[in-house]
Amino acid sequence: MRLDGIEESENVEDRRGEGRDNRGGMNFPGGRGGLGFGTIALLTIVGWALGINPAILIGGAEIVSGARNGGQVVSRQSAPPRSSSQEEEQLRVFVSRVLKTNEDVWQQVLPQQRGVPFKRAPLVLYRAGTNSGCGSAEAAMGPFYCPPDGKIYLDMSFFAEMRTKLRAGGDFAYAYVIAHEMGHHIENLLGILPKVQQAQQRLSRREANGLSVRVELMADCLAGVWAYHANQRWRVLEQGDLEEALAAAAAIGDDKLQKQSQGYVVPDSFTHGSSEQRSRWLQQGLRTGQVQSCDTFNTRAL
User: Fold this and answer.
1) Residue 258: phi, psi to the nearest 5?
2) What is the residue range of 38's domain?
3) Strand, coil or helix: what is 301?
4) How many domains does the chain fold into?
């Protein structure tokens, strides 16, 4: 992936120097405080209890866990070794530049295609844990977008998880993950996330899961829209980049993760979509460059 000459974003909030003990409790709108995330399983249980599907808030949780157990997410038990300062600085610059391309693309595309002004989503870099508008953020949660504060949260150790546990490394694969979370921000700006949350409170678990799948596949497609326009403007794609992103999308499909963790697949418990669906919707956005082509909510067959 070619990012030489691209400026760094001014909207990266670096909290990596913070301690682990400065983290508050869960603070969903309308919910009660005082509950830390602890593990992803706990987050899932509490999220459903409050009528909020945590999959909407935490798009990367299943990626980091690498597996599921009966539809509940299993948290990572230990963090990988810290990267060297040189490696980490290179990653920081990479993340900042990828964020800048997302900002520049959506600043132009969102008003042109949907008549909606783009509002920047700051990206918070942290190590181990920090506070967010959705409560306490943990490295084990993976990258996520928090609608209440409109920020993307990322512990860069996640990229090592992609390489070692999912065998889905590569710079464009990492960029796809960032663009996917920005896709959730675009969904929020379009008013989709609030509507989905409201609808899920009236639905069965299976039906609510189905809406979550549509949210996640749309974010995959919007990541493809970003890649289309970024490549048109800066020629960022190199040979093998598309394969990296598709491999990452396939590695985090619900069917593959369930098969790995429990030996069988339960489609009704899917919250992010199958490997085939995630790869296909990413390609859809990359092929068309159109937000409208990512409308998973008016598509009968996903």
Assistant:
1) -65, -40
2) 12-298
3) coil
4) 1
